Structures are given as C-alpha cells and as structure tokens.
Amino acid sequence: MGTSTEKSMTNIIKRSKPLLGTFVEVSILADVNDDTLVKLSNLAFLEIEKIHKMMSFHNPDSELSMINSHAYKKNTVLSNQLEEVIQQALELSHITNGLYDITIADELMRQGGLPKQYPSSEAGSWRDINICNNHITFEKDIKIDLGGIAKGYAVDRAMEILQKQDIEYKQISINAGGDLRMLNWQGKMVYIRHPSPKKHGQFIEIPMKAPALATSAPNYTNKNSLIINPISKEKLKNRESISVFADKCILADALTKIFFLFSDFGTIAKLFDTSMVTINEAGNLRQVL
Amino acid sequence: MKYFDRRTLIKFGLTATAGIFFNITAKTWAKIYLTPELAKNIIWGDISMSPFPVTMTKSQMKEIKKQSKVRVRSDKINAWKVDGGGWFILDQVIGKHENIDIAVGIDATGGITGIEILEYRETYGYEVANPKWRKQFTGKNASVRLRLGKEVQNISGATLSCRHITDGINRLTQTWEQVLKNL
After folding, report:
1. Right CATH number for A58-138 from 2.40.10.270, 1.10.3980.10, 3.40.50.920, 3.40.640.10?
2. Most buried of A69, A189, B138, B175 (most Cβ within 10 A)?
3. Residues of B with Cβ-Cβ distance to A183 under 8 angstroms
C-alpha cells in the first residue's frame, strides 16, 4: 500500500450500520484523511438516527407519538422537520386525491401492520390534519404513520448535513435499505434487487438518472410491512418492484408507494420531474417515463 | 395486480415512453466495508487494546445459547481487550441467505458501544457469481480494497432484514455476561 503523504490522496470510506430495521450504508470519497472520513460518516449516521427517533410510530417517546397522542382537537407544537415531512405527505395526498394518506395508521393497526398502542383511534383521512404556524391539530382521533416517507427524508437530511461541511467531495452515497441518494450521480450505475424470491441475491443493473432512487416491492416484505390502498383498504399483492428516480429521497420513497396504486402516474411524474422503472417477476425491466 | 403496460398507458391517455427494455445483468453480490483496523478506530478511537482470543467451554456455549436463544456456532471469541475494561470483537453472523462479518464494541459494563458491518456476502447463488464482478476484490487484502478509490456498486431494492444482526448482538451480549466479564 502506498505511504506517500506529501500529496493529498483521494480517500474513501464505506460504512454500514444496522439502523431503521435495515442496513444503512454511507460511502464518502474525498481528498481527506481517514479520521475526517470517519467523522463525516458519523454525522450522517447520527442524523439518520435522530430523524428515526423523531418519527418512529413504534417508539412511544418519539415526537410523532406525542402528536398521535395529543393532537386530536388540540393545537400541538410541531418541529420543522416533522412539519416538512407531513406537508410533503399532505401535498401528495392532495394530488392523488387521497391514494397516498399517512392517516392509514388506523387501518394498519387493524390489519396488524402496526402495533395497537393507542386506547382509541378512528378512521379518518388526510383532510382531518390541520397544520398552521408550526402547530398541528387533528379534527378526528386519527393516527399518522410516516413509515412510507420518513426513511427517505432521513437520507435527504444526512446528505444535507454532509454537504454543509466545508469539504470538496468527489462522491457521496447514502443508502437506507434501498432508499438511495447520491452526490455526483451522473454516469453511475445502480443495482436493483430481483423482485422474485426465487432469484434471491440477483441484481439488475441500470444507470442512475437523478440524485435519489427508491425501490418498493410488497412481495419482498413480510406480513408486518404492508402497502394498503387507503380507499379500498385492501392489501396490495404486487409481483413487480417499482423504482422511482427523483431529486429527493423523500419524494422517491413516497412515489414508489403511490405508483403501486395510482394509474395516472404520468401527471405526477411530470409534476415532480421523476421517472419510474418496473421489474417483473421474470426480471424484465421497463422504463416508464 | 394490474400491470402498467402500453395499453394501460394509452387507456389513460398519457404521453409516456413505455416498454423500453434494458439488458438484464442479474448478478450476485458481496459488499466490503471496513477493515478491522478502521472499525477498531471508529469504535474505540485512540484507546489501546491487545488481542485476547478466547476459547469457550461447552457449558459456557450452552448457557449463552440458553440465555440468548441464539445458536452458538463457534467456541472461539475473536476478541481484543481494551484499556479500561472494554472489548472489541470480530464476529460472523450467518443468516438464511447471507454471511455478515461484524465488529462490535462492548464496554466494561456489558453495554454495546458500536456495531459496524465489515463485509456482507450473499451466499445464495454465490457460485454463479459474475467473475468480472468478483475480480474487483480478488488478490487484494481488505486494506487495499478500502482504498481502491472507486465506489463499489450501490444497491436499491428490498429492505434487508437486520434480524440476524440483532440475534448476533444478543448472543455477544450474553457472551460478555457468561465469559468476558470474568476475564
């Protein structure tokens, strides 16, 4: 191994830690030493953990749980981060006319996708959420779950924190169980997991097309991880995986769920400047838009 | 489940470019992250440590299995004793489809101070691994791999289960309780 220290050498760190119930991977390439790379990657992991703690449905001490417990008919304080995520979710609910709806938590609790941890809960919709001046109020005794969007947001935040540091990066890549965000993504290839359980361990190579990519496939997931149609309340049984390219992971993450349900994806895709790739059980890959 | 094919698109009157097929290069996968040296540094910083390999007795292994409800595959603990009473352990977690090399820090009271993944290998279909894909790793030790200077491929796909890691950590916590605590 070279030991020359006179020139600043391009250095890389790749770390993976078990977080958010998945493996979170942070890779950084820059002309800095190992210690700096370790510190930078620590910043990214800490931010992801922070967002997770804030937005966990399962943790009764999270800010989200506080809101779920107290926001019914009461004006409850909201942090900037949680407001940003909920506003994004509401925008998507509005555009999809309720096909994307974070108040699905009530139904998820009923169907066993989330633990029943509230003494009361009623069915409602995104229209029962009011946000104003960093405060939130529920018109009904609804509960919200950010499971389909918070992971992507955590990845975006980690990227933001890294970019705020005074470092000239050659490459950054943050991947939380398939929610991927890259700096200098142009010309890079990504590997998408084969959706068929029979082809476990196989990957399909495609070029990266935007800073963020998220992939969803209900058939990979176990029964505790569901996508439910908020209108029909039915569980989805899809054999295809859907990958969405977008500028931000929060959007890519949410849009993968939406595209399972929403036929008029062309309108949404144009609105958010996204594109989608599907892979079926046979491993056939289609680019749509 | 409805498939978004060309007809669907026409039906919804969309101006979409559908049906562009890519060539498929399905492949198996191995990912290498940290060297044990860097993992030591990340978990324990400058605190010095010395190798402290341990071989467990049958009864210790039995007790760890009983307490953690996780199978104990090896009687060896690949451990380093850290100044101040903590430990650094290199371990392997074996799941249904994957082998995962991990590094774990345990403090003097048995608390976990850090978990790092060193290497993740998909074992299912490993034999048919694309030789070209594997080539980037062969003939290089871990410290060289870390400095190849080019990014290893990014994966987007299923949320991989961390269950085996959780089991492994439970097993190591019990290993400390039953064995390392008294050394």
Report:
1. 1.10.3980.10
2. B175
3. none
Give the model's confidence band at B162: pLDDT under 50 very low, under 70 low, under 90 confident, else very high. Answer: low
Identify from B24, B150, B159 which residue to disrupt to test chain A contact, counting A C-beta atoms within 10 A and taking the largest count.
Answer: B159
Burial of A125 (0-12, 13-18, 19+ CB in 10 A): middle
Report the CATH number of the A11-51+152-288 domain.
Answer: 3.10.520.10
**Which B-chain residues 101-160 have CB contacts (< 8 A) with chain A?**
115-117, 120, 122-126, 143-144, 146-160
Q: Over chain B, what is the mean pLDDT?
A: 70
The residues spanned by each domain of chain B are 29-148+158-182
Which residue of chain A comes nearest to B156, CA vs CA?
A: A178
Q: How far is CA A258 from CA A98, A116, A169, A262, B27, in A?
A: 10, 25, 33, 6, 29
pLDDT exceeds 50 at position B124: no
- Look at residues A78, A137, A125 and name the one whose alpha carbon lies nearest to residue A101: A125
Q: Searching chain B, which residue's CA lies closest to the CA of residue A15?
A: B33
Nearest CA in chain B to A9: B149
Unique residue bearing structure tokens 């609790």: A109
Could you give the CA distance from residue B157 to residue A177 in angstroms, rounded to a whole number? 7
Domain residue spans of chain A: 11-51+152-288, 58-138
A199 inside 8 A of chain B by CB: yes
- How far apart are alpha carbons B115 and B104 in whole angstroms? 5
Strand A169-176 with A179-183, pairing = antiparallel
pLDDT along chain A (289 residues), means of 10: 54 88 89 94 96 89 94 94 95 88 82 79 91 93 90 96 96 90 90 73 81 78 55 66 92 87 76 85 78
Question: What is the token pair recorded at B64?
Answer: 């760890």
Q: Please provide the distance, in angstroms rounded to a whole number, between the alpha carbons at the two ends of chain B.
A: 59
CB contact under 8 A, B4 and A18: no
Instruction: Tell me the whole-structure pTM to 2 decimals.
Output: 0.79
Q: Is A231 on the interface with B (CB under 8 A)?
A: no
